[in-house]
Amino acid sequence: MIKILIVEDEEKIARFLELELMHEGYEIMKANNGRIGLEIAEKEEADLVILDVMLPELNGLEVLRRLRKSSDIPVIMLTARDAVMDKVSGLDAGADDYITKPFAIEELLARIRTALKKRVITPKKETDILKCGLLSLDKLRHKVMYDNTEIELTNREFVLLQILLENKNIVLTRDMLMEKVCGYNYVGETNVIDVYVRYLRTKIDNIFGIKIITTVRGVGYVIKDEEK
């Protein structure tokens, strides 16, 4: 059974979500403050977190930042705020989606289904070090190295490279990558993934004379087991 953690300090909302999600067949865990929510998220095998932004003890964004140091569990931010910068902050901190109160339960359920599907793209690995030849990516230290040389990447470049490394030999479409790298609510240039792939090639392939990311014409991108 899929487990969902609800971190929400408003009891009526938390209870409403609990009943609706249980009705849909999910197993529910709850926390009414950020510190407890973080502890549960780190210790329990939840499949998704619904995380309010305005929480006592630790706010939702801080919970998310700390959680992302050790976990890629899908997180949907839930808040009364609707300012663009608040949404951007949540997505940049690693949220998979963002929904504003008040909301229709049908919309939240749809976003939960989408977030759970996206998790298939980035399965958990036994190691926090991802490798392709001499290239290595350290998820916890947020560091990329080629042999003994560190490569400076932006957050989105890092996330894109991580997703591709976690799914070696699997061709990922541009849409799949865009949702994971830029967020469900991304509004902007549709070729953003092509742009970031070009940035990665400039910083890795061009510098070290290798070919890490392969283009699959008309589909997307893939990193194969061995660099060429």
From TrEMBL:
DNA-binding region coordinates: 127-225
Superkingdom of origin: Bacteria
GO molecular function: phosphorelay response regulator activity; transcription cis-regulatory region binding
4-aspartylphosphate sites (modified residues): D52
Domain OmpR/PhoB-type: 127-225
DNA-binding in keyword set: yes
Any one Gene Ontology BP term: regulation of DNA-templated transcription
Cellular component, GO, one term: protein-DNA complex
Domain Response regulatory: 3-116
PANTHER family xrefs: REGULATOR OF RPOS
Function field: May play the central regulatory role in sporulation. It may be an element of the effector pathway responsible for the activation of sporulation genes in response to nutritional stress. Spo0A may act in concert with spo0H (a sigma factor) to control the expression of some genes that are critical to the sporulation process.
The protein, known as: Stage 0 sporulation protein A homolog
Organism: Clostridium thermobutyricum DSM 4928
Species classification: Bacteria, Bacillati, Bacillota, Clostridia, Eubacteriales
